[in-house]
Amino acid sequence: GAEVVKQVESPLLSGLVYPGMQALDEQYLGVDFQFGGVDQRKIFTFAELYLPRLGYAKRAHLMNAMVPGLAGGKMSSSDPNSKIDFLDAPEVVRKKIKAAFCEEGNIAENGILSFVEAVLIPISQLRLENIKQKGSILEAASGGDLEPFASDDAPEGTVFSVVRDEKFGGSLHYSSYDDLKNDFAEKKLHPKDLKTAVADAINKLLDPIRKAFTDDEEAQRIEKLAYPDPNAKEKKQKKVSSLPALYCNFEG
């Protein structure tokens, strides 16, 4: 409990119960494997060790590196501005990216750079490989394209382009993340230009997902059940007083 729950001077019993309940998630969700960040490693090893001793199935556990949130520091599901959701509208994506922490020349705890490294460039590389293999690796779905995040005039091998006006030096094309990171660290790439390129790439990535959701009424119904609007006002039913009837009956 001390390893996964923030400790206070007077710890609550919930701090001891929480790890066990989180480990049991995999049983009651009926999953074959769990996917999470490396910060879940201790919970995963706890589940792997103890759940089979209780007669539950042993699951596989997959982990990925942690990506800093858009505000810097750890990404949080409770802070909508620290992350991009699959169903965020294009203007919402741009607003979140615009407000993200991305100090000029600072490559530490930079959520924008980390997203480029962990998500956009790997996807772009996979799409380039798919083109070389003539579409044998990936298949377009829901009307989405599988082009890399490079501009039309980008040189061969480009995995990420930052489109700029000629008066600002023209567009920048990168064949690796290290080249992009070095340019940012040396202030050759301005945060505003990087943010614009990242927002464009994310929206390009999310367009087919948003379209598939919009066309699927069942998915929309499930989403409302899973994530009810916290600002929605509950409809109050009009109460009908029974006193007049009781009074009449009594008098009668």
From TrEMBL:
Pfam families: tRNA-synt_1b. Its EC number is 6.1.1.1. GO terms for cellular component: cytoplasm. SUPFAM superfamilies: Nucleotidylyl transferase. InterPro entries: aa-tRNA-synth_Ic, Rossmann-like_a/b/a_fold, Tyr-tRNA-ligase, Tyr-tRNA-ligase_arc/euk-type, Tyr-tRNA_synthase. The keyword GTP-binding does not apply. This is tyrosine--tRNA ligase. Belongs to the class-I aminoacyl-tRNA synthetase family. The lineage of its organism: Eukaryota, Fungi, Dikarya, Basidiomycota, Agaricomycotina. Keywords: Aminoacyl-tRNA synthetase, ATP-binding, Ligase, Nucleotide-binding, Protein biosynthesis. GO terms for biological process: tyrosyl-tRNA aminoacylation. It comes from Favolaschia claudopus. One of its GO terms (molecular function) is tyrosine-tRNA ligase activity. Gene3D superfamilies: HUPs (3.40.50.620), Tyrosyl-Transfer RNA Synthetase (1.10.240.10). PANTHER family: TYROSINE--TRNA LIGASE, CYTOPLASMIC, TYROSINE-TRNA LIGASE. It catalyses: tRNA(Tyr) + L-tyrosine + ATP = L-tyrosyl-tRNA(Tyr) + AMP + diphosphate + H(+). It is an enzyme of class 6 (ligase).
